[in-house]
Amino acid sequence: MPLRRARLHLGTSRLRYARTITVVMTLLLSIAVPVLLYAQTTAELVTYRQLRLSDGTVEATSVNYRFAFNTITSASIGSVTFEVCQNYQYEQGDPCTPPAGFRGGGATLVSSIPYADFTYNPASTDNRIVISRPAASPVTPQPLTFELEGVTNPSAVGSYYVRIQTHASTDGSGPQIDYGIVIFATNIGIDITTEVPPYLLFCTGITIDGYNCGTAEGSFISFGELSSQASRSATSQMLASTNAPYGYSITLAGETMTAGNNVIPAMTGNPSSVGVSQFGINSRQNTNPSVGSDPEGPGLTNATSGYNTPNSFRFQSGDIIASNSNTDDYRKFTVSYLVNVNSSQPPGRYVATISYICLGSF
Amino acid sequence: MTLRSIAKRTSYLLVIAAFALAIVSAVRPEPVSAYGLLSSRSIKMSSSANGATNTAYAVGFTTVTAGQTVGSVVIKFCANNPIMGDACTAPTGFNTNKATLSLNSQTGNITGLTLDTVTSTANVVVLTRTAGAVANGPVTFVLGNGTNNGLTNPTNSNVTFYARILIFASSTPDVTTPSNENSATDAGGTAMSTANVLNVTAKVQETLVFCVYTGINCASGGSAVALGDSNGVLSDTTVTYTSNANFDLASNALGGVNVRLKGDTLTSGAFTIDPYSGAACSADSVLTSVERFGLRVSTAGAGQTALAPYSCLAGNHGFDVASTNTTYGNPMVTTTGATDRSSSVLELAAKAAGTTEAGIYTSTLQLIATATY
Question: Which of A15-29, A168-182, B38-52, B352-366 has the lowest mean pLDDT?
């Protein structure tokens, strides 16, 4: 009987002990719950919060999202979440509707200022990006900046909301410390189109005033009576310009001076020789004889080799006498013609018909 | 006369006397209240919130007894009723705060009242003056200034409480004996009530409206801009051709909104049209040797400010290609704070030179709005 009493007594004490524990736990719980609730409701709104996009067009890929905000609460932060929603969050816990087409999962955190130990957390989803650090560390109120790379914009034009939350946990879970919402807007870009029409300006004449083809005059050159005692020379002019991306070329076409079967030989890049039958042209200012001018105008095209040496003349049908591999502004060429004859050059009316063909390379 | 008859007569006399006394007692009128009933009496509270402190009570009434001598005005605050002569139960939590209570804005014929902080109690305010005759008329004064002194309202919400306004000839009235209230020359009751304070909450969500369009408005949309003559061709190398695009912007962002311009100049394959250069506006050219692409904010919406090199006068444009080609583009328009919805107009401009390579040139410009909340 004494043993049984002792056990009964022990049972009563356990019962009292359990009851005491229950009361204490209840008290603790009644204190802790309001504190926890208070902690949830006193999360602060981060200030100076913004989201800058590198591309605001719909469906743009590889977009950089740069978040910046100032924390308010001094606390240990282990993670930050960015939840992108189509709807606004009126109350904490409001469901988030992911924007169609938005993909933030798999983004890369390329910048984290000033705390470099944040990394992209694989627990992220397409519309809830989590960045975290190995362990929560204290963060005093200060500006934080995080830049994500490789985000795909929503597929529709509109405004979208990003819920920013800081957490003590290192995986974006648990209560928020600070929070805030930023908005970004997607649009379609402005597509500008215009056309630059192709043109090739080219004209010839004995004279051309300025760079105006409308003033080109004359197409006949007379050397007068040829002499074995003196050179005969004359000039004509050409004006060219083009926006052909690959420039233009002027080709010489025609034959040397002839009179029936009698020919004045074409020059091959020789100086003038009085008393020697020869016919040639160049596009430079010459002193022997004194004839011609160098090319002029804002353009850059020059005569080609063979026609670009002062006092050296050449005439070869099919030769390109001037060319440029780029677009070129106005360029006026003065073509000098030289003819000499020897004393045995058969008499006759020597003529030559010369064509200049300008070809643009578009 | 026998002793018995004497006793009988005596008893008759006693009965008659008793009846007479009863009749006299029944006929004799009770003493009636002597005070006149104050008219137009009111007490306006600066706050009806229960427990509100530093509450000002604006008292008003009109005296009715002509030429009465006024030595004091007493206001008793009671929870039970405003009936003169009845015991007064102080409202729960109510306090006149007599030590700090100020008396303000006295008007009317009862002049020179001062607060008697000795006689006053937690629910009785005694105002005294040098006794003297007063002509009838409206009287007003305010107890407390409503800022740093005043009365403390009853702490129960939505509860009625009463005030008895009493005018005595004496400057030292007895305010503790209920029956003495009947000796007032003028008196009257009024009622007040505390009430629940309506807590109104509203939320203003962050907003950002940003719409880029080439039509007549945002709803009409459009994103294509053709620069040039009627055929969209830069046909005249002396002419700068322009065309417009628009954007609407609205935000309640405290830190304002930056609209950034991002994109490249007009290109056609490997060929480009030189943009207006630098961080400042440049004048349009008529030289055939000059090619240009750029824009200006020809109309900035209300609250929006165009930034260089886009804040150009007519005939000038800009395009800071070194900045527009960066990751986040070049700031083009800004607001200093929240701005209502307004529209801005962008004037896009292009000119070909004689040497501008032939081709179809395109550019896609992005406008990116960044709000700071």
Answer: A15-29
DSSP H or E stretch at residue B159:
none
In a shared domain, residues B214 and B362: yes
Q: What are the CA-CA distances from residue B310 to residues B69, B220, B316 (Å)?
A: 83, 25, 9
Domains of chain A with CATH codes? 42-186 (2.60.40), 200-360 (2.60.40)
Same domain, B218 and B291: yes
What dihedral angle (degrees, nearest 10) is formed by the CA atoms of A308, A310, A316, A320? 10
Domain contains B21: no
pLDDT single digits (tens) B152-198: 999 999 999 999 999 999 999 999 999 999 999 999 999 999 999 89
Taking the C-alpha atoms of residue B303 and residue B146, their distance in angstroms, rounded to an integer, is 41
Cβ atoms within 10 Å of B215's Cβ, excluding its own: 12
- 3-state secondary structure (DSSP) of residue A143: strand
Q: Note the pLDDT of residue A32.
A: 44
Closest CA to B90 of B184, B159, B13: B159
Q: Does residue B49 share a domain with residue B176?
A: yes
pTM, rounded to two decimals: 0.74
Q: Which two tokens stand for residue A247?
A: 């420039």
Contact flag B354-A54 (C-beta cutoff 8 Å): no
* CB contacts, 8 Å: A301 with chain B: none
pLDDT in tens, B207-256: 999 999 999 999 999 999 999 999 999 999 999 999 999 999 999 999 99
Shared domain for B174 and B250, answered yes or no, is no
| ipTM associated with this complex | 0.79
Q: Is A259 helix (H, G, I), strand (E, B) or coil?
A: strand
Closest of B119, B225, B250 to residue B175, by C-alpha: B119
Distance CA A38, CA A34 (A): 6
Residue type, B77: F
What is the CATH number for B295? 2.60.40
Tell me if B9 is assigned to some domain. no
Say if residue B215 is in the same domain as residue B187.
no
Total number of domains in chain B:
2
**Distance, CA of A358 to CA of A249 (rounded, Å):** 6
Over the Cα atoms of chain B, what is R_g?
Answer: 44
The CA–CA distances, whole Å, from B276 to A21, A150, B286 equal 81, 32, 14
Nearest to A193 among B232, B357, B373 (CB): B232
Residue contact A191–B233, C-beta within 8 A: no
| CB atoms closer than 10 angstroms to residue A267 | 25
- What's the gap in Å between the CA of A84 and the closest CA on chain B? 14
Boundary (domain end) residue, out of B164, B193, B222: B193
Residues B146 and B176 in one domain: yes
Look at chain B and count its residues.
373
Last residue of a domain, one of B161, B193, B225: B193
Closest-CA distance of chain A to residue B269, Å = 11
B327 located within any domain:
yes
Asked if B48 contacts B153 with a C-beta cutoff of 8 angstroms, the reply is yes
B138 burial (CB, 10 Å; 0-12 / 13-18 / 19+) is middle
Q: Looking at CA atoms only, how far is residue A340 from chain B in angstroms?
A: 40
From A335, A144, A114, A110, select the one nearest A236 (Cα to Cα). A335
Q: From the centroid of its chain, how far is CA B315?
A: 49
- Are B261 and B275 in contact by the 8 Å Cβ rule? The answer is no
Residue B264 backbone dihedrals phi, psi, to 5 degrees: -115, 175
Is residue B349 located within the same domain as residue B225? yes
B99 with B143, same domain: the answer is: yes
Residue B267 lies inside a defined structural domain of this protein: yes
CB B60 within 8 A of CB B165: no
| Domain hosting residue B178, numbered range | 36-193
